[in-house]
Specification:
1 helix, 4% helix, globular, mainly beta, four-stranded antiparallel sheet, 100 residues, 9 strands
Amino acid sequence: GINAEYMGIRKWNSSDVLVCVLYGHRGPVSALVVFQGALYSGSADSTIKKWLGVGVDECDGAIEDAHTSTITAMATFNNSLYSGGEDEAVRKWKCVEAFE
């Protein structure tokens, strides 16, 4: 199996000291984006997770099966989150609705 060490998001402070590791994905994290004060992560487990603010260590929701394979890219535009995956799909998410 995959080493759990590769499934976390490492958070560092401005002095290059590791503050914490955010765990929650079942596969390696492959994409990150900050949007509206929250951190969003995409993974090889095909899910997108929302983390409560950039400075907080709790997951605030997930879109399970956002893609049928690894999420490889994430971007934001006009109050929407976009994700792309190895399934050759690009999806648009309205952040408020997708994580309710």
